[in-house]
Amino acid sequence: MSISIKDLPDFEYVLPGSAACAGCPSAIALRMVGKALGENAIMLMTPSCAVASIGPLPKSCYSIPVLNVCFASAGASAAGLAMALDALYEKGRLTGEKPTIFNWAGDGGTYDIGFQGISAAAERNDDFIHFCYNNEAYSNTGMQRSGATPIYAATTTTPLGKEVHRKNLPLLMLEHRVPYVATASLAYPTDLIRKVKKAKDIRGFKYIEIHAPCYTGWKFPSSDTVKMSRLAVQTGSWLLWEAEFGKVVLNSPTSLLAAEKIKPAPLEEYIGKQGRYAHLADSPQKEEILAAMEKEIRRELKFMAARAEL
Amino acid sequence: MKKILDTGNAACALAVKAARVDFVAAYPITPQTSVVEKLAGYIAEGKMNAKYLPVESEHSAMSAVAAAAAAGARVFTATSSQGLLYMHEILHYAAGGRLSLVMANVNRAVCAPWCLYVDHQDAVSQRDTGWIQLFAASTQEIYDSIILAYKVTEKIHIPVIVNYDGFLLSHSMMPFETVDQDIIDEFLPPFEPAWRLHPQWGGTFGNVTPAENYAPFRHSLAADIRKAGEVIEKIAREFEKLTGHWHGGLFDAYRTEDAEFFLLSMGSMASEMELAVDILRDKGIPAASIRLRVFRPFPAEELSRLLPDGARLLVFDRNYAFGTEGGVLLAESKAALFNRKDDIKVVGRAVGLGGEDLPADFLAEKAREMMEVLK
Ligand SMILES: Cc1ncc(C[n+]2csc(CCOP(=O)(O)OP(=O)(O)O)c2C)c(N)n1
Ligand code: SF4
Ligand SMILES: [Mg+2]
Predict the structure, then answer these.
(1) How far, in Å, CA of B105 to CA of B87, rounded?
(2) Hey, which residues 50-89 in chain B have their CB within 8 Å of chain A?
(3) Which residue of A12, A111, B30, B181 has the fewest C-beta atoms within 10 A of its own C-beta?
C-alpha cells in the first residue's frame, strides 16, 4: 500500500477552533488518522488534552460523532458500542456500512487507569481500534508522571526525574495475540496513515500507539513537535514496528537501525533539547546516565529485532 | 400466560429475554450470578437474539452498556453489592447522559467485613446517582418490574435499577406467571430513540460543558426524576390492563383501614411485616404495613397522603445512613413529613443487616419497642 500525501482527502477530523496548544501532537495525529479512516467513524475519548481542547458545548472541534467516556472506560465502552452496533445492524434496525469505532486516549487512559479494560477488550478481540497518543505524561492535569514517562524525565510528580523505566505497552498488547498492533510517529505520516488504513480493514482488536512529543510538558519550542518526533525515532528512543497476528515487522528507519545499516542519531540531540531532562545537563553522573540510556535503546532494538524473527 | 415455579434470578432472566434486549454486558457476583449465566445461555442457544459481552469488571459492564445505550440498543446488566459500588462513577455518567438502561441489583451487604447476604446498603449508597430505583418483593414483581422498567426508561430517558433481595428472592423458588410474548411486544415495541451515537445522526456526547449549559442539564434531570413516580404508576396501570398483574403503585399497603401505626419497609421484608401487622392487630393494635416500591424518586407526597393525622410511622431500614440517627428511609420519611402540621411522629430502626433473619414475631416486637419510644 503506497500512500501519497497529495492524494489524501480534504476531509478533516480537527476543525479550526480547537483549543489545543499550537503544535499539539494529538491534533496533528488525529488529522492524519481522519484522512485514513474517513467520515463513517465514531470516536470515543477519555479525559485528556484531546478532550479539554474540544471546545465547550454546544461546539466541538471534531467533525465526527464523539462519545466522551470516563477515564477507565475506553476498552469496555468501545467494545459495548461495537457489539451493540453489530446487534442493531443484524436486526436491520440500522442499515448501510457499519462505522469504524475507535478510541482516542492518552497514555494515562491507556497505560494506567484504562489498562484493565483495554487488556480485556484485546483478549476478547472486540472490534475497534484503540489509539494511544503517547505524550509520556498526564498533560491535561499539568504534566504528572505516567506509566509511559521514560526514566530520568522530570514531571510535576517526579521533580527530580523518574527513577524507574516506562512500561512497554505496545509489546504487552502484541502478546495479547490480537490481529493488529503498530507503533507510529508524527514524523512518518505515510507510515502512520498506511497503518491506520490497514487497521480499518481488519476485524477485531487493533492497537496503534502514536508517539506524541508535547512541547508544553517536555519543554521544547512549539514549532519542533515533528522534529522531536523524528529524533525520537532516529535515536532509537521510539521504535517503529507493526504486527499482524503476532508477526512483527520493523519499519524503516527502525529496521535500518536494528540491522546497523544506519547509525542512531546522538541521544543528546534528542534529550538535550527537552527541558524535562535539563537536570541531567549539570549532573555529575551525566555521562553514566547517557550511557545507560543508550544501552537500554540497544537492548530494546535487539529485543524487537529478535521478536521479529519469531 | 404460563404459571411456573422458579427463582427470582430466573424470573429476572426470563423478563430480560421477553423484553427482547439487544445487548448484555455483565460481571458475575453472588447472588446475581445465575441471572447472567442464564442470559449467556439463552443467547448461546439462540433463544435470545442479543449479544453478550463478558467484561472483566462491573466498571466495564456499566461502561459497555452505557455506550451501547448511546447507540440506541436496548441493554441490560445485573450486579450486587461490591459490583454496584464499583460501578458508581458510571452510574452518574449514565444518568447524567440521560441514557435508557435497565439494571438488576440483587441486594447484598457490602464489605468490610465480607458478607454474602441481603441488606440494602448497596442500593442506598447509589441514592444520588440520578437513577430510578424500584424494589421488588416477589418473583412475580421482579419479572413485571423488569419489563416495566424498560418502558419507563425509554419514555423518560432515566436509567432504572430493579432491586431485589439476595437469596431470599434471588434463590428461592416461588410460582409466577410469565406474560405471552405478543402482549409484551405490544407493551414494549422496539426502542427507537430520537438520537443515536452514529454518523447518520452526528453530534457529540458528554462534551466539556460550561456552567450555563451544565446547570440546566442537572436541573432537568432533577425535575424529570421527581416526575417519574407518576410515569411509573401510569405504566404499571397500563401493564395491569394487559396482564392483570398489579403490585401496588408507589407503595404496596396492607390493612391501612383505621390504622394508627404504619410499618414502613422495602423489599421482601414486607411479607413478614404483613404477618407482624396481623400479630399486632390480634393484640388490638391498629397497625398497617406500607412497602415502598419506588425508592427513587422518593414518593414524599404519596407517603404523606397515606398517613392520616397523628399517624405513627415506624421505619424498618435494612441499611444505615451513617452519621444520622438511623437508616436512609428514616431520614427520607422525616424530610417528607416535615411540613405536616399535625402531631405525626416518626421513629426507625436498622434491622436485617447482612441477612439477619426477620421473622414476623421479631418485627412485631421491634414495632412495639418503637411504639414505646413514641409514648
Ligand atoms: C477517574 C478520574 N481520575 C482522574 C481524572 C483526572 N484526569 C483527567 S485527564 C487526566 C490525565 C490524562 O492523561 P493522558 O491520558 O495521558 O492524556 P493527556 O492529558 O496527556 O493528553 C487526569 C488524571 C479523571 N478525569 N477521572
Ligand atoms: S499540553 Fe501537550 S498534549 Fe496537551 S494540548 Fe498542549 S501540546 Fe497538546
Ligand atoms: Mg498523556
Answers:
(1) 12
(2) 50-51, 53-57, 59-61, 63-73, 75, 89
(3) B181
